Amino acid sequence: MRSLRELARFASKVTAAYPTAAGSLASGNSSIAPAASLLQRRVGITMSAPAAVDVDAYKVGDSTNIKWHEGSVDTATREKAMNQKGCVLWFTGLSGSGKSTVAYTLEHALFQRGKVAQVLDGDNIRHGLNSNLGFSAEDREENIRRIGEVSKLFADSGMITLVSFISPYRKDRDQVRARVGDKFVEVYMKIPLEVCEQRDPKGLYKAARAGKIKGFTGIDDPYEEPLDAEIVMEVAKEGGDGTLAPPEKMAAAIIEILEQKGFLSA
Amino acid sequence: MRSLRELARFASKVTAAYPTAAGSLASGNSSIAPAASLLQRRVGITMSAPAAVDVDAYKVGDSTNIKWHEGSVDTATREKAMNQKGCVLWFTGLSGSGKSTVAYTLEHALFQRGKVAQVLDGDNIRHGLNSNLGFSAEDREENIRRIGEVSKLFADSGMITLVSFISPYRKDRDQVRARVGDKFVEVYMKIPLEVCEQRDPKGLYKAARAGKIKGFTGIDDPYEEPLDAEIVMEVAKEGGDGTLAPPEKMAAAIIEILEQKGFLSA
């Protein structure tokens, strides 16, 4: 947890330096709305360029040992502060294979380690960003494309981004991989159809078998297995009882791998 | 910077507790790929459900004083750890009004204070998520809708999200406001057209006046001013020289407001 302490120390340093800026602002000739008006909803600020400006955020930045890119925070600096590297863990697998369960458990476990992680899944994407998409082949492709772009934005901001969608087509996943680049980690939940169908936590397989859902992955629509997933989660074939490991255990295994791949430090 | 220290302390605590989980994993009966194979691209993990599993992430979580939602990190917990509240600062204004400059300067200044902020602007959205949109009325509306949804995802993950797009139509901005809710803060860069046109940093006004760009906001397409923006940045009319304040100064002013609105602590 060295990085968090470092960040705290670093932040204290700049806070100590920062009041200068805030102070000079108050004593400058710009007119800032008084504190009382902040209770109102709207705040108007009139800003003119005074003759002598001694507020210089970059100068404050330079007084630390971190090099700033003018006007933006570069990826390395951001990652150093968060002591992690932004990445996309792309969970793919059949419905009922445990993608979301493992992703949320992993998000939780990472947070416990002081890491910043976020799950993107059907709950927060299909009802929002992709609410105007249906389930045609074209819309499914666009669904995955948008999710890929959003996951890239999250990863570029330093987040460990956990993406959980069936994403059945290899071509769509590979396009995301190409866009996201080195920080893309495909996690294939390789759970046999019969195990997923037996679990059927949402009753979807039953509905699909009854013909109530058309084009269901694994039933009347294909699932194209990843050929080169970075992480493959399998049910034990020999010596095991054929059931799934608890999600905490899978999450812990993925954390080990993330650590060794260097994503949990910067 | 109290929160970062707290986070560091908190993180140390769970790290101390966590090795138990990692240790039990190694001694469990699951087969983890040895470290050497991690140098290879693909990692296969076979997970079975052992008879006695003593890895319980939730148990570890319970040993701290923070209440966990099973399998996910709730917003309050996330915000408490980051000592900030996720929000969307929506910068709107004419081309050349300084939206992106102020947004990036603010991102920088927030980062210096140990906050996690991220700018979403044309550079990272139009070429990615919205690369399949044009400039028709319909596409412009969808452009802002998607940006709004992504900014909501970022804010929900605890980020201070800085959004910089002209977003000329009131209806589109109001729809985002309705979606994002209380954490939406509209920042209107109220800079007169003549000032923006004189600055013309990208030469776009010149091109629009020459008829080389059609439907340009402020020239042959309307800009609908916000009626109830939370923050309005104006050029000084009296006593000022009519030019813009330096971005560092505007950013410092916005930080004061964010602080008073309670977004910089949790």
Automatic annotation (TrEMBL), chains A, B:
> Does the keyword ATP-binding feature in the UniProt annotation?
yes
Entry's family note? Belongs to the APS kinase family.
Report which reactions are catalysed by this protein.
adenosine 5'-phosphosulfate + ATP = 3'-phosphoadenylyl sulfate + ADP + H(+)
GO BP, sorted A to Z: hydrogen sulfide biosynthetic process; sulfate assimilation
Output one GO MF annotation.
ATP binding
- The APS kinase domain covers which part of the protein? 85-233
Which Pfam families does the record cross-reference, listed alphabetically? APS_kinase (PF01583)
Protein name stated in the entry: Adenylyl-sulfate kinase
Question: What's its job?
Answer: Catalyzes the synthesis of activated sulfate.
EC number annotated for this UniProt entry: 2.7.1.25
Q: Which UniProt keywords apply?
A: ATP-binding, Kinase, Nucleotide-binding, Transferase
Q: In which pathway does it act?
A: Sulfur metabolism; hydrogen sulfide biosynthesis; sulfite from sulfate: step 2/3
Record keyword Kinase present? yes
Q: What class of enzyme is it?
A: transferase
